[in-house]
């Protein structure tokens, strides 16, 4: 089917990634459970083996790549996707990494840096001058915005424009998702999304995706290189997971919109509660990232962090809630939260009493009543 790419993202999420319309045929692509395909003598045109390609992957990649404004390769998980980007580096390369970002990514970069003699330059992503200075002579600039779990916001348009064509750049777009923020449009080379989060949206699968621009500038070679890493490393998504993610992405605009609206309501109420020391949410006018997020995002996201007095207080807070679940991960229909410092690897810059909250799509008043009851009891 030919698609008018001027359609709204809500429409694209529903209409792309469909089989050719054939009377009597299903509307949906099925989970194609195939490790091998009937052989062709010309191996350049037909799929041969399960690592080469899969119709279910292609359907999801069409939808997600288009929403990101590029072309997509899916992986077994967000970390498999991150690993594929790092696989393109050589020993001795220089990598710019946020001081505070998704722990799995920073741990992976650090362990590989040690093994392969990479030079690491750590930057505060909100400090644009520091990012640009660190990028000078680097081989890879890795950014995340908003960051986990401090919710810092980078100037993506400014950084993207300054670095385009100078150094390979990656933005981890998992917290915002393609619906709220599109780094490829700002000139970044690669966008990572953990499909485990908003794309799947139901806490029932792991999946990752990399999207790359379509407008030349080495983008075709980059896309081919990342697809080759997936093929050769075998970090392929399972067809069932891919199919669940495809099903999930149909309602992603509805879910994200509802969750963002809830997060806005809860951020304000939390900020007004005496037990809460600070709310980190770019949607609050008082937040350091507010102006940037307002200028570049289509909504402020459904993640926020609250700071309570100390670790034990934060633990009593999460234990006192019954509707919210204390669990890691984010971006699902159900509201979850976690005290980040329970992880031994979490950075010292993250306060002991910080609780990261992933707001779901339940009714905001029910979510608030649960939080308020627990806060009042502290
Ligand atoms: C979850 C997450 C990842 C890793 O994705 P997985 O699918 O869990 O492997 C990377 N970055 C961010 C920001 C995440 O939230």
From TrEMBL:
One of its GO terms (molecular function) is cystathionine gamma-lyase activity. PROSITE patterns: CYS_MET_METAB_PP (PS00868). Its cofactor is pyridoxal 5'-phosphate. Keywords: Pyridoxal phosphate. It comes from the Bacteria. The keyword Cell cycle does not apply. Pfam families: Cys_Met_Meta_PP. One of its GO terms (biological process) is transsulfuration. The modification N6-(pyridoxal phosphate)lysine is found at residue 197. The keyword Transmembrane does not apply. Belongs to the trans-sulfuration enzymes family. This is Cystathionine gamma-synthase. It comes from Microlunatus sagamiharensis.
